[in-house]
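Q: How would the structure tokens look for this protein?
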Amino acid sequence: MRVHVPVHGSRPDPQLPYVRQLIQLALQHAGRTAELVDVPTEMSQTRSLAEVAQGTAPNDIMWTMTDRFRESCGLLPVRVPIDRGLLGWRVLLVRRSDLALWEPVRSLAALRQHRAGQGHDWPDTTILRANGLPVATGSHYEALFRMLGSGRFDYFPRSVLEIDAELAVPGREQLAVVPRLALHYPAATYFFVAPTRPDLAEALSTGLGAAARDGSFQQLHDAYYGPIWREHLPPGTTVLTLNNPTLSFQTPLNQRAFWIEPPRS
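A: Here is the predicted structure in token form.
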């Protein structure tokens, strides 16, 4: 089975090695072998979703955070959270010079006194606003880091999956993570497959379910991300919990094998 996988050249994708191995694992559990073909792409999430749905994209699969709209725009969602919900665990990226100002922030009421930054078409923007958190938006991923540095907003919630690679980018030395403070909301990263590839969507769904039942899905995830979430979410971390009104009723929240439970205080 040939799978055309999108690769972004202008920004790091720390999930790519894991995703490639997970696709192989899922198809193996579905009784298929895979040939993964990297295809370069540089598009916003909204445009990528639209082009994959229309069959005009070079890739026939993508992975992104789900919401009701994205599951209804013509793509084939594979309703297994490939990140085991880890995308919904967020640390707060701020200006290093402001770290002392964040020490007393340990409640949603205190957080509402600050403005977050997010992409204009990201589901996270809707989630934050639905919980009463002010949000400033930008159109370009890279620009959001510059906007934070220049004071256009106060903090940039970043997934524990992303933050290490993002902070390693030269020129971001003036940014830092608020210690022992995190946001959490139920969130899932799904594979979204082009409607022309129902064979791929079915194989991924079948294979991921089988891999979760025998534990190999969880083992692969922990091998990649266990050290990361244990580092960024140590015991004693204050976790501010948000509601996520964007989730579809078909989100498999009751299938505990699909979800991770990082250590809590």
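Residues 87-184 form a domain with the D-Maltodextrin-Binding Protein; domain 2 fold (CATH 3.40.190.10).

The two ends are 45 Å apart (CA to CA).

Upvote if useful.
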